[in-house]
Design brief:
This protein is an alpha+beta fold and 141 residues long. Helix content is 43%, strand content 21%. It is built from four helices and five strands; from the N terminus they run H-E-E-E-H-H-H-E-E. It has helices at residues 6-13, 61-74, 79-94, 102-123; strands at 26-31, 38-46, 49-58, 127-128, 131-132. The protein has a three-stranded antiparallel beta sheet with strand order 1-2-3. A two-stranded antiparallel sheet has the order 4-5. Helix 1 packs across helix 2 and helix 2 (61-74) runs parallel beside helix 4 (102-123). The longest helix has 22 residues, at 102-123.
Amino acid sequence: MAKYPKFLIEHFQNPKNVGEINRPDGVGTVGNASCGDIMQMFIKVNGDRIAEAKFKTFGCGAAIATSSILTERIKGATLEEALEISEKTSKEILSQLPKEKTPCFTLAVDALKLAVEECRCKQEGIHEKGGFDLIDSDEKG
């Protein structure tokens, strides 16, 4: 554990925002085949701001810690701000992680991007009930 900064250890030992959100506005699910880590990020939007963010992960301590940090930092942000925060947070944390743990944080960022994408699609009416419908109802025949 000596390789990790104190704030990462704290988020690993006492992660924040673990779990699922009931009826989320966006969910991002990603995995890393080489290490077996799987992560889900859930967001709930109120107005134009992220009101709630949670995560579930099957992964190492670095994946847990970085997801905890990211969910804490994006609360209250707009979707666009959340993406910017994730990039800034990514640079900050990656500079302090052992190189072999880089994919662990990348999972959190990628899961957030997918959750934001799903949320935007729902807001635009493109994505409903878990799937994209590319066929117009008039064309289904």
